[in-house]
Amino acid sequence: MKSVVILCRHGNTFAKGEKVVMVGANEDLALTEEGIAQARAVGAALVEAGPVITRIIAGPLKRTRVFAEELIKIAAPALSYLVDDRLKELDYGAWGGLSNDEISALSGTEALRRWQQDGERPQGVTFMPAASELEQQTRDLLNELAAGGGLSVVVTSNGRLREFGRIVGAVNKSGQDSCKVNTGASCVLLFNGNSWSTVCWNVGPPLLAAISFTDLSFI
């Protein structure tokens, strides 16, 4: 059985000129107007690409729920979305709510770089869930999505997406140098009955719209 998953990162939560900080599980921010527009752009891209969406799942925070709601209005008005706590953004502990400069002052620029580029957790700062629990939650989700078949749209946040990317080997298979996903960007995964493949990683709506979801034989 083939299953396709479109992973979406929520849209912007900071307007131009606002202080940008690390947004984790405890920073339940709303989408900005631009963030809502990003959700609608993903919805329009899916309409253009034309896949039949089987299910839509979102994390419980406002930024992921609203993104899913706005996407549904465009791409799948007959569907409602499910909320799954396993898609809730990581709790970044002492880093949560801090700017990059403030994190660098607290833990050093190298610790911040290693997290941003390599997904390496910093020493002395506790992220939750623990790495082993995060991996198990992500693998469980992937197994459920594979068993469910069809095409699923999953809306979550950067830390969770990094773990999806690490498990499916997004860096190696897509030519990316990081599992980071930009706000409003998407990733497409295919389960071919045996394993997951990365169709694309961290692409904007124009590239998402160009994917042929009826013919994934090029993988």
Radius of gyration of CA atoms, rounded to a whole number: 17 Å
Helix content: 40-55%
Unreliable spans are none
- The secondary structure category is alpha/beta
What portion of residues belong to β-strands?
15-25%
Q: Give the helices and strands as they follow along the chain.
A: EHEHEHHHEHHEEH
- Count of strand segments: 6
Measure the end-to-end span: 15 Å
* Biggest sheet descriptor: 6 strands, mixed
State the CATH class of the largest domain. Alpha Beta
Q: Give the mean pLDDT.
A: 94
CATH architectural grouping of the largest domain: 3-Layer(aba) Sandwich
> Treating each run of at least 4 consecutive H or I residues as one helix, how many helices?
8
Query: What's the number of structural domains?
Result: 2
SSE topology sketch:
Elements: E1 3-9, H1 33-49, E2 55-58, H2 62-75, E3 82-83, H3 100-107, H4 109-118, H5 131-148, E4 150-156, H6 158-168, H7 170-174, E5 186-191, E6 196-203, H8 205-209
Parallel strand pairs: 1-4, 2-3, 2-4
Antiparallel strand pairs: 1-5, 5-6
Helix pairs in contact: 1-2, 3-4, 5-6
What does this protein look like?
This protein has 219 residues and is α/β, with parallel strands linked by helices. The protein has two domains: 3-91 and 128-209, Rossmann fold, CATH 3.40.50.1240; 92-127, no CATH class. The protein is built from eight helices and six strands, in the order βαβαβαααβααββα. The longest helix is centred in the middle third of the chain and has 18 residues, at 131-148. 41% of the residues are buried. The model has no long low-confidence stretch (mean pLDDT 94).
